[in-house]
């Protein structure tokens, strides 16, 4: 299983995982849920403790947890972060997605 995190996304994730003066998180959990206009939608959450069945990866010093059901759908994923005058947020570049919705938050295989 391979997930890459761009430098822009890494900077943003680090600021979320280790907020100054607050409790720190263990890592991020990335997954997919049924739904969205293309069949699946991405989920990403900060976690203190991973679930016992999570797969644990590390990308550039960031721990990434993925549930076993989501793992095949996310293998090869590149997490990016964009920031512009119009929008900012995380972008999931998934080589397994055969189609995606216009907003990029859901995909189909």
Describe the structure.
- The chain is mainly beta.
- The protein has one domain: HesB-like domain (Hypothetical Protein Aq_1857, Chain: A, Sandwich).
- Helices cover 14% and strands 43% of the residues.
- The strands form 2 sheets. Strands 4-5-2-3-9-8 form a 6-stranded mixed sheet.
- Strand 6 and strand 7 form a beta hairpin.
- The mean pLDDT is 87.
Write the layout of secondary structure elements.
Blueprint: E1 3-5, H1 7-17, E2 27-34, E3 40-47, E4 55-59, E5 62-66, H2 71-74, E6 77-83, E7 88-93, E8 99-100, E9 106-108
Parallel strand pairs: 1-6, 2-5
Antiparallel strand pairs: 2-3, 3-9, 4-5, 6-7, 8-9
Annotation keywords:
109 residues; 9 strands; Hypothetical Protein Aq_1857, Chain: A
Name the shape in a single word. globular
What proportion strand? 35-45%
CATH topology: Hypothetical Protein Aq_1857, Chain: A
**Uncertain runs:** none
CATH class: Mainly Beta
- Count of DSSP H/I helices: 2
How far is the N terminus from the C terminus? 18 Å
Class based on secondary structure composition and strand pairing: mainly beta
Question: In a nutshell, what does this entry contain?
Answer:
The chain is mainly beta.
């Amino acid at each position: 299983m391979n997930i890459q995190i761009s430098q822009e996304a890494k900077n943003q994730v680090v600021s979320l995982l280790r907020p100054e003066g607050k409790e720190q998180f263990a890592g991020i959990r990335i997954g997919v849920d049924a739904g969205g206009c293309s069949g699946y939608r991405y989920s990403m959450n900060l976690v203190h403790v991973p679930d016992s069945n999570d797969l644990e990866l590390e990308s550039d010093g960031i721990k990434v947890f993925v549930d076993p059901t989501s793992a095949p759908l996310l293998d090869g994923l590149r997490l990016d972060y964009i920031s512009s005058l119009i929008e900012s947020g995380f972008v999931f570049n998934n080589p397994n997605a055969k189609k995606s919705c216009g907003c990029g938050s859901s995909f189909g295989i």
